[in-house]
């Protein structure tokens, strides 16, 4: 087989492939055997008519077309591998010549991954702060443990206070009309949690069981439901019950109840160890993100539209799956946000472009540094996955799609490891908490606005 490559533009190439005559003849014979079984020819049992009879009956063209379908896909794959091309779309194929006893010639026009011009990716400076856990961090963690293990006491004759959990019936109106979703019965709400719209919970402090209150709020201008953003709402609220948390004292007995530690001092040490490990993981993750972002920013690449489009489609499918878990359709989501599909795609475009560029740059670094998955690494990962999924490792080994994904995943992780190993750690800049560049909450996160 012969194959030549002509570069048409920055993303597209034209392959001209010539398949040798003996291989074509073999495909013609195979095509005849396939087609003769599909055609009823008078005077012959099905599948038994000679080839020249079949050709008289259906013509030569269907046989040639069938032979081309047999020959072209593997010949195309061989040419792609020979010239080390990385197609990103299906090829447009044009048959130039197919004749008995002659080579088959065809052309394949296909988009390929673009050339990546790498910038500096070794010796990148990244902030790596020290792992620090303060006594205040440990106190906050213990406070959270107290809260999670608190008992609830029913309050009947006292007003609700911040920190109490009230059961409420509520119904909201906007512009004087009931609004779908702004209602509930026996809804548990912790006063001061910030779960509801700002101002809602504060107006229930001091209320008693069975008391009715009118609550006036204004939805934030950046509220996630655009049709409610900035709108005023009135809620009729009835307090159905009040429960108050009773916290156990922080002593050795508490330590025994919530852990395997015998004393509060041991528990504090265990918490320190856990928080230090969590911080270490957060710092490692932040360093990995930072070094990848710097390597990607230093590189230049012309992003193919088809790769960006597919990444956008992937993000939309992920959104649909998440919405389905909440029993919301994509159409309902679009109506609620006041967007159409074109606007949704544009919202996803910046992150999709970032994802595609990151993928291409990491692949280019892996090629430049000869980074790939080893057989031992593949075997270890397959055995690990087999233990998790309780599958036979041999079954996973035979799944070619899974193996391809696994090889790629290992290669990318090793490439990021390489960037981190060849980076230069620098102390954080002055000002602010630089441990991870993110929230340093030690307890559970507060609920989002409802």
UniProtKB/TrEMBL annotation:
Main location: cytoplasm
Domain of life: Bacteria
Alphabetical list of Pfam families matching this protein: FKBP_C, Trigger_C, Trigger_N
Bias-annotated ranges (Basic and acidic residues): 430-443
Membrane-spanning parts: none
Catalytic activity: [protein]-peptidylproline (omega=180) = [protein]-peptidylproline (omega=0)
InterPro entries in alphabetical order: PPIase_dom_sf (IPR046357), PPIase_FKBP_dom (IPR001179), Trig_fac (IPR005215), Trigger_fac_C (IPR008880), Trigger_fac_C_sf (IPR037041), Trigger_fac_ribosome-bd_bac (IPR008881), Trigger_fac_ribosome-bd_sf (IPR036611), Trigger_fact/SurA_dom_sf (IPR027304)
Cell location: Cytoplasm
Residue intervals of the PPIase FKBP-type domain: 163-243
Broad enzyme group: isomerase
Enzyme Commission number(s) of this protein: 5.2.1.8
Gene3D superfamilies on file: 3.10.50.40, Trigger factor ribosome-binding domain (3.30.70.1050), Trigger factor, C-terminal domain (1.10.3120.10)
Region (Disordered): 427-450
Gene Ontology cellular component list: cytoplasm
Coiled coil: 309-336, 361-391
BP terms from Gene Ontology: 'de novo' cotranslational protein folding; cell division; protein transport; protein unfolding
Gene Ontology molecular function, alphabetical: peptidyl-prolyl cis-trans isomerase activity; protein folding chaperone; ribosome binding
Keywords, comma-separated and alphabetical: Cell cycle, Cell division, Chaperone, Coiled coil, Cytoplasm, Isomerase, Rotamase
Function recorded in the entry: Involved in protein export. Acts as a chaperone by maintaining the newly synthesized protein in an open conformation. Functions as a peptidyl-prolyl cis-trans isomerase.
Record's comment describing the protein's domains: Consists of 3 domains; the N-terminus binds the ribosome, the middle domain has PPIase activity, while the C-terminus has intrinsic chaperone activity on its own.
HAMAP family with a match to the protein in the record: Trigger_factor_Tig (MF_00303)
Family membership noted in the UniProt record: Belongs to the FKBP-type PPIase family. Tig subfamily.
Record-given protein name: Trigger factor
Organism of origin: Moorella mulderi DSM 14980
Name of the encoding gene: tig
